[in-house]
Automatic annotation (TrEMBL):
Main location, first listed in the record: membrane
Family matches, as PANTHER family: OS06G0587900 PROTEIN, UNNAMED PRODUCT
Designated name of the protein: Leucine-rich repeat-containing N-terminal plant-type domain-containing protein
Matches recorded under Pfam families: LRR_1, LRR_8, LRRNT_2
InterPro entries with a match to the protein in the record: Leu-rich_rpt, Leu-rich_rpt_typical-subtyp, LRR_dom_sf, LRR_N_plant-typ
Membrane protein topology class: Single-pass type I membrane protein
Amino acid sequence: MPSMFTLLYILLILFSVRTTILEAAQANKSEIDRQALLCFKSGISSYPLGILDSWSDDSLNFCGWKGVTCRTKFPPRVASLNFNYARLSGKLSGCLGNLTFLSRMNLAYNNLSGTIPEELGMLPNLHTLNLAGSYLQGNIPISLGASNSLSYVYLANNTLTGGIPLSLTDCSSLSTLILSRNNLSGKIPSTLFDNSSKLAVVDLQKNSFTGLIPRFHKVTALKFLCLTENFLSGNIPPSIGNVSSLTSILLGQNKLSGLIPETIGHTTKLLELDLSFNSLSGSVPLSLYNMTSLKYFSVGTNALLGQIPSHIGYSLPNLHSLILGSNKLEGLIPASLANMLNLQILDLSNNSLHGSMPSLGSLANLRQLDLGRNLLEAHDWSFLTSLESCSQLTKLSLEGNALNGSLPIAVVNLSPTLEDLSLASNQISGSIPVEISNLVNLTSLRMESNFLSGNIPSTIGKLQYLYIISYQTTNYQVLSLPRLVTLLN
Ligand SMILES: *[C@@H]1O[C@H](CO)[C@@H](O)[C@H](O)[C@H]1NC(C)=O
Ligand SMILES: *[C@@H]1O[C@H](CO)[C@@H](O)[C@H](O)[C@H]1NC(C)=O
Ligand SMILES: *[C@@H]1O[C@H](CO)[C@@H](O)[C@H](O)[C@H]1NC(C)=O
Ligand SMILES: *[C@@H]1O[C@H](CO)[C@@H](O)[C@H](O)[C@H]1NC(C)=O
Ligand SMILES: *[C@@H]1O[C@H](CO)[C@@H](O)[C@H](O)[C@H]1NC(C)=O
Ligand SMILES: *[C@@H]1O[C@H](CO)[C@@H](O)[C@H](O)[C@H]1NC(C)=O
Ligand SMILES: *[C@@H]1O[C@H](CO)[C@@H](O)[C@H](O)[C@H]1NC(C)=O
Ligand SMILES: *[C@@H]1O[C@H](CO)[C@@H](O)[C@H](O)[C@H]1NC(C)=O
Ligand SMILES: *[C@@H]1O[C@H](CO)[C@@H](O)[C@H](O)[C@H]1NC(C)=O
Ligand SMILES: *[C@@H]1O[C@H](CO)[C@@H](O)[C@H](O)[C@H]1NC(C)=O
Ligand SMILES: *[C@@H]1O[C@H](CO)[C@@H](O)[C@H](O)[C@H]1NC(C)=O
């Protein structure tokens, strides 16, 4: 009969052997991570900041290596890699796929080349992938969306090609997809905006996407949508108006056509709407002029018809930019614009607006005012006098209208911040006042194609920043201006 002690002793030995084996096996899992990190390092050809110096085969404590963070639980496993702006050159190794517990990988703004390894799709715990700002090429890995913890994908500013993998579309945890400034092409997957309660940011700006904007169905968190500078065509889907979480709809510089859906006006949290540089037609739906929250509103350079509603200044009181230029708008410029006290940029140029211009002197923040290429008249020029109180004005263009009468002295009392002044192609008579030199910061002065008489006043020689001046004159004294590069007649 073995004694009680012997039994206990045997049990104790058995137990300790078991834990030793267990520890060995777990330590071995850590070793997988250590080997994967060393393998990643072998793909990096240079790191001039010495960031990978601590990464060595002699060092077992990989959790202390620069850029590596481990989880707190035993055994230690790599939880995050952080190397943004680290000047790493080289390629991403597929070994990274062995870092089973990797949750965050931030290698943004380096000099990485080659492709994104397909193995990254095998990381079951990957939450954040940031590889923006390198020279990565090839396709986005087909497997990428397989992880159901993937939330943040930031691959902007590389040279990626191919399309958006369907796995990303099906990834229900995805909240942020930033693929801007690559050369991705093909259609945006038709189900990208289908049934997602997490998707909040989609930025596909400056790629080569073609085809239609997919419909929106049960996307409840989408705030920021930017599809600017692609080759998207067809209509804007009316279902976009059902996405009440939207704060930015940026669809400019595409080939969109048809009517602007009236439903866009139902997105009551919208701050920015950019539909410029498309082929949209019909009139701007009245609901859009009713979005009180809006700060940036651009539908410029389309084929839009109709009038600007007279109440616009009351229904869009928070606008800082209103860009309706290069359309086919008619009617008067509403006097209520004077109520948009935050307005900085107003561009109504290149339309068929007529009548006189309203007083906008209340717009203390106005910086750029472009009413050129319309059918506007001057009447008593009180409009210009009112602009004397816009103390931030840098650009004023009234060119290509039907302004007549003699040029009022008010022009020289405009803010000295003014850099760009054009009154060209009107029927303005009189002469340019000598006090034009009050406008000390003028870089461009355009007065050609009017009925003005006399020479350019010699005081213009004081305008040291002037580099464009156009006026019918024989006074070449202005040629001595230090920066003048263009003299147009
Ligand atoms: C431990 O890891 C090495 C490779 O790092 C492997 O060759 C070995 O089979 C592993 N042993 C166990 C018990 O998992
Ligand atoms: C970037 O990487 C390429 C090769 O991958 C190399 O030729 C180039 O010198 C690197 N540039 C910098 C600034 O490190
Ligand atoms: C690590 O990844 C490489 C490349 O994907 C693979 O060949 C290797 O088997 C992996 N090693 C371990 C220990 O899983
Ligand atoms: C894109 O990345 C390159 C290389 O890192 C950098 O020089 C450039 O400033 C980046 N551009 C933008 C818009 O982020
Ligand atoms: C982008 O890809 C398209 C084809 O998909 C190609 O025609 C174009 O030249 C590429 N642009 C750049 C800048 O690489
Ligand atoms: C929507 O997504 C949820 C979770 O991802 C899924 O369970 C459900 O079946 C989907 N519904 C439809 C209509 O696709
Ligand atoms: C908007 O959502 C409602 C309710 O879910 C639905 O009945 C309607 O068809 C949707 N509108 C569009 C244009 O998709
Ligand atoms: C504008 O908003 C007001 C008040 O919210 C509402 O009564 C009116 O129907 C809206 N008009 C349009 C054209 O959407
Ligand atoms: C004026 O608008 C038309 C479209 O309505 C456009 O084709 C043309 O380029 C615009 N001109 C300028 C100078 O912007
Ligand atoms: C300016 O034009 C208007 C009509 O456009 C005309 O009634 C007025 O007489 C003109 N004034 C001068 C000074 O030519
Ligand atoms: C003229 O421009 C300069 C440089 O942009 C600026 O610092 C200065 O404040 C401007 N002067 C006026 C009167 O706006």
